[in-house]
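Format is sequence with structure; example below:
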Amino acid sequence: MAFNNFGLNLVRHFNLPSENSKLQLIAAGMRRKNLFVLEVDVYVIGVYVGENFDETYIKERHTQKGSYFDMGKSSTDHISVCFTLTFVRSVGTSTLVDTIVTSLSGNGDEYNNALELFKTTLLNIVGKGIKKNDTVEFCFQGNDASAIGIGFNNSFGGWVHNEDIRARLISLYTGERAVVPQVATTISQRYIEN
């Protein structure tokens, strides 16, 4: 598969910052944003899966949950998944973080405290701004159904633990209403429709 048709060469393999396993690129798509009458490219999302990836896993999870990488609440799922957002233009840190956090908004003190930690961790690791070719990483390990690893340019920022935020973040990129529909379509064509 060619994943360099977005003006960027996405790496085919990616190492999680917190473990030694290598992840393999299985899907990619361009996030576009409408600005008045103009549509602009913002970032390319790459979806990476762990070495123990089994194609039947996606089919089973999609049937059960409606989101391709919903790890569920089981500690027996050992697949690791990572989403990389590689930017094709400069973006203000607050613009990116506020957009993601707004997409994940929810209810309850525990949820909102975890979302505030997610926001703070992302703000701290990204810093002043995002330039072309910078990459934000969201990593999910199958042996902890609440963990979200946050990184920037392959530097690890920290873990946030909340199952609901994790499920919403995964759904944001691979669910039925994904912000990059091309990713969900690619995964469906490769693993569901076969």
Q: What stands out?
A: The first strand starts at residue 13 and ends at 15. Residues 32 and 69 are 22 Å apart (CA to CA). Residues 71-77 have pLDDT under 50 and may be disordered.
